[in-house]
Amino acid sequence: EPEVTQTPSHQVTQMGQEVILRCVPISNHLYFYWYRQILGQKVEFLVSFYNNEISEKSEIFDDQFSVERPDGSNFTLKIRSTKLEDSAMYFCATKGEGGTEAFFGQGTRLTVV
Amino acid sequence: KQEVTQIPAALSVPEGENLVLNCSFTDSAIYNLQWFRQDPGKGLTSLLLIQSSQREQTSGRLNASLDKSSGRSTLYIAASQPGDSATYLCAVSRISSGSARQLTFGSGTQLTVLP
Questions:
Q1: Is the CB of A56 inside 8 Å of chain B's CB atoms?
Q2: Which residues in A1-113 belong to E strands, given as ranges?
Q3: Burial class (CB in 10 A: 0-12, 13-18, 19+), A110
Q4: Confidence (pLDDT) at B97
Q5: The pLDDT value given to residue B98
Q6: Contact (Cβ atoms closer than 8 angstroms) between residue B94 and residue B101
Q7: What is d(CA A56, CA B76) in angstroms, rounded to the nearest whole number?
Q8: What pLDDT does A99 receive?
Q9: CA gap A77, B105 in Å, rounded
Q10: Distance, in angstroms, between B68 CA and closest chain A CA?
């Protein structure tokens, strides 16, 4: 069964450092999303990406965040200067054209120290 | 702004019992509703998706219903097993001019099935 793959599974970084979280979507899926879940809190939407551009973003997704598809397959989330409060599980999700069901990766646990 | 609430926050039942998890949402203009399972420290596994035009969906021992007008959904688990122990999340996507339709999540129900 096709699946969304995220790397790394766990990343520890120092405050102020840049991190890049990677996602390999399900083949032929065209909608890509990033969500995050701070420990003990709800899963929150960050950004959606379609046709090589951001289609929607939440208020969480400020100038410190960016997304791109650098090689037409991977989908990345970059945090330029990490803060302690960026510590969370980050989930990538993808959806096919005309599809309604979102498929989630296993997540990247980001710990900022 | 859409708000999704799940009750109860935690539930503990003996093995073999049938149970119902509840989800409510404030804005009935939804596109669809998805139920997910999340094991501790793990990702989200999609269990069932109900389109806004549907009333229920079934998969094995799971049955999800949707009453869009009242803003409610239930997930029914029959003959519960210890392996069903996990957090169950409800999420809705809204009708919008764009097609991305991101999900709004509830805080989940943590289910423990005792052997």
A1: yes
A2: 5-7, 10-13, 19-24, 29-37, 43-50, 53-57, 65-68, 75-79, 88-96, 103-104, 108-112
A3: buried
A4: 56
A5: 63
A6: yes
A7: 33
A8: 66
A9: 21
A10: 17
Comparing CA positions, the residue from A104, A82, A95, A83 lying closest to residue A35 is A104
Task: Specify the pLDDT at position A25.
Answer: 92
Give the whole-number percent of chain A exceeding pLDDT 90: 74
Cβ-contact B86, B16 below 8 angstroms: no
What average pLDDT does range A75-104 have in this prediction? 91
Measured distance CA(A63)–CA(A48) in Å, rounded: 15
Q: What is the β-pairing status of strands B30-38 and B19-25?
A: unpaired
Run of H or E including B23: strand B19-25
Q: Do B102 and A109 touch (CB under 8 A)?
A: no
- Give one word for A55, left, alpha or beta, with left for phi > 0 and alpha for psi -120 to 50: alpha
Q: Identify the three-state secondary structure at position B3.
A: coil
Distance from C-alpha of A26 to C-alpha of A96, rounded to nearest angstrom: 8
User: Count of residues for chain A?
Assistant: 113
CB contact under 8 A, B105 and A42: yes
Residue ranges, chain B, pLDDT below 50 = none
